[in-house]
Prior knowledge:
- This protein folds into three domains: 1-188, Up-down Bundle (Growth Hormone, Chain: A), CATH 1.20.1250; 192-250; 256-478, MFS general substrate transporter like domains (Growth Hormone, Chain: A, Up-down Bundle).
- The chain is built from 19 helices and no strands.
- It has helices at 5-32, 36-64, 66-85, 90-116, 121-150, 158-164, 167-177, 193-216, 220-243, 260-290, 295-300, 303-314, 316-323, 327-347, 354-385, 392-413, 417-425, 427-455, 473-476.
- Keywords: Membrane, Transmembrane, Transmembrane helix.
- GO terms for molecular function: transmembrane transporter activity.
Amino acid sequence: MQRTWPVLVAAFGATYTFSVGNVTAPRLGPDLGADRGEVALVLAAFAVTFAAGLIPAGRLGDRYGRRRLLALGLLAVALTSALAAAAPGLWWLVAARVLQGAASAMVMPQTLAIIRTSAGRAAQVRGVAAFTASSGVGTVAGQVAGGLVMGLSLPWAGWRGAVLTSAIPAVVALPGVRRLRVAPPNSTERPDLGGALRAAIPLLALVAGLSLGPATGWPWWTLALVAFGLLGLYGFWLNQRRREPAGRSVLVAPSSLRPPALRIGLLMTVLLFAGYGAFSYEYSMFTQVGLGLTPVASGLGLAAFAGAFVLAGLRMPRITARFGDRTMEVAAALLAAGLVVLGLASWFNQGEGAAVWIGCFQVIGMLLGAAQASQYGPLVATVMAAVPHRVAGLAGGLFTTAQQAALALGIATIGGIPGTLAPSLGWERAFAAGLGVQVVTTVLFWALARRLRGSGTRHAPDGNDPSTTSLSLSENNQ
């Protein structure tokens, strides 16, 4: 674990950068004269290049070396964070956020791939647990630290100072990268540059449409972007299916997606992060607009949730040893129960004020944080274990692409429910209605986890991996 600390800091930094962008959004309008749609464009600029670059970056790491890609990505994150903080105007900021998203995309798949290919099954288990904790902390720390920096009465604080803090994890991790023990690249396939473009352009369109749609009232062009993205991804898949049997280089080999655990795991990833994306967006809107909290107070309100997430993530080997293959099912059931209780508390809190609701949330939030960590950790292990070592970067890219697209999807679909219903129901009850939809996605996650347990979790055969036998999650953590 001591040797992989740069990987964990890098994973923290990637989610921190994404979260800081969301926190700074309300300040961009007054400072840069941007309307709601233009502010959404700043957020989408990062999200689209981050999502679109993950799979190509993972494959480049498989081919040319994950340590090399990780170092380049961290250096680029530091530089582009400084560019974004110094942006003199709106369109300069959009351009800097595009580059910042591409740099973060270089980092994230390498972190999971390095953990996946670390020596020894026990080391992999500990690495996944630490990755779960560090990436979860990054998400919450971005909201808390970003709000604190924006509240400082210092020169160059505000949103610019918050954005600049995204460079700190990269600068801290970069010196330790060269000491990482990383398996040499063993993929000899030439990069499928055409496939990278066929995947990146539709992903750009899809995530841009989903990100900009809610803020702009879903004009025709956002729907057209979503439709183009879906059709383009289908065309990309057909292209890869034709190329692989012919022996030509591919970006995502269809044969690599044959393991049922990988396919089911990616669908579970979409459900989990669509719900989480919606929850984080609804929480910010509800606490800041509905309850009138400051960004700092809103972020600090997540302290109990974040603490429980981190503690559960660090203890994930013990948790999975206790519950075995049923870990994700138990976690999903607890999460659904917690969402129901929070929804009821919000519904009957109508008119009682912020203090009562925040107090209730500190208790319920501990259950929600522990339950989500207990879904997230085993899910990462399931997806990453379903592919050979030689394409671990691809698996990392697939997982994080599904994660980022689902976050945008959750905000665009479920996340808008409270704002739509608030004028007629009030914010407390509108927030409760949004939680009801997330209960449905959690139940679907539970059903897929049950199906996954029934089908068994298997490692994909790998000529460089001596362990090709069937291993359950509980066996992995003994």
